[in-house]
């Protein structure tokens, strides 16, 4: 059994993960509208991944005899200044999630809640990977620049990254 305070914090994290899923879904729709199919596919996959993160916490709360709550999720933005700004926003959101996970680990440590500490280790690794992936994407976008063909090359680069991620997920199973 975990503390009520920890259960509330984990339920709050469910909401943060749910918002990320909706945000990335909204971004995918914008990319589709802008003709950036590679970016859209990447963001659809990211959206599904965030939903999985949300459900993992949801199930954990049930396992530790707590009540998992379905969150009220705010409407994410639907318009973005540019694909560059969009990915800067993705990176910033991933950093926010990392900070939140770190706070959960600190809280679990103070509570001597070793079950939750163990559970959150997966999220620590996942967030390190997510931030690294988003920094890599931003670096590639920066290298490509803002020339007339930049959107085409950015879309192709993101499509290649997405395909590599899908391939590595297939190897993990």
Q: What does the model show?
A:
- With 173 residues, this protein is an all-alpha fold.
- It has a single domain (4-172), classed as Ferritin, core subunit, four-helix bundle (Ferritin).
- Helices cover 80% and strands 0% of the residues.
- The protein has five helices and no strands.
- It has helices spanning 4-33, 37-63, 83-110, 114-144, 150-172.
- The longest helix has 31 residues, at 114-144.
- It is elongated, with a radius of gyration of 17 Å.
Could you list some keywords that capture this structure?
5 helices, 173 residues, 80% helix, Ferritin, mainly alpha
In DSSP terms (H or I, runs of 4 or more residues), the helix count works out at 5
Spell the H/E element sequence: HHHHH
User: CATH fold name, please?
Assistant: Ferritin
Counting copies of identical and different chains, the oligomeric state is: single chain
| Low-pLDDT segments, ≥5 res | none
Return the structural class: mainly alpha
Q: What's the level 1 CATH class?
A: Mainly Alpha
Question: Major sheet: size, sense and barrel closure?
Answer: none
> Beta-strand level of the residues, as a percent range?
under 5%
Rg computed from alpha carbons, rounded to a whole number of angstroms: 17 Å
Helix content: over 70%
Question: How many strands appear in the DSSP assignment?
Answer: 0
**Nearest-integer average pLDDT:** 95
End-to-end span in angstroms?
A: 31 Å
- The CATH homology group name: Ferritin, core subunit, four-helix bundle
- Overall shape: it is elongated
Number of structurally distinct domains: 1
What CATH architecture would you give? Up-down Bundle
């Amino acid at each position: 059994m975990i503390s009520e305070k920890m259960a509330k914090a984990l339920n709050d994290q469910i909401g943060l993960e749910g918002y990320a899923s909706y945000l990335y879904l909204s971004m995918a729709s914008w990319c589709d509208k802008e003709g950036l199919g590679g970016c859209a596919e990447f963001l659809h996959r990211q959206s599904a991944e965030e939903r999985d993160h949300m459900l993992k916490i949801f199930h954990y709360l049930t396992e530790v005899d707590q009540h998992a709550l379905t969150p009220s999720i705010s409407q994410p933005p639907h318009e973005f200044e540019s694909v560059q700004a969009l990915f800067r926003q993705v990176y910033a959101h991933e950093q926010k999630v990392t900070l939140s996970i770190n706070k959960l680990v600190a809280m679990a440590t103070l509570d001597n809640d070793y079950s939750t500490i163990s559970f959150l280790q997966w999220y620590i690794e996942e967030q390190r990977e997510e931030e690294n992936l988003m920094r890599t994407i931003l670096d590639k976008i920066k290298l490509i620049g803002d020339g007339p063909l930049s959107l085409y090359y950015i879309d192709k680069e993101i499509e290649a990254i997405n395909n590599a991620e899908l391939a590595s997920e297939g190897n993990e199973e």
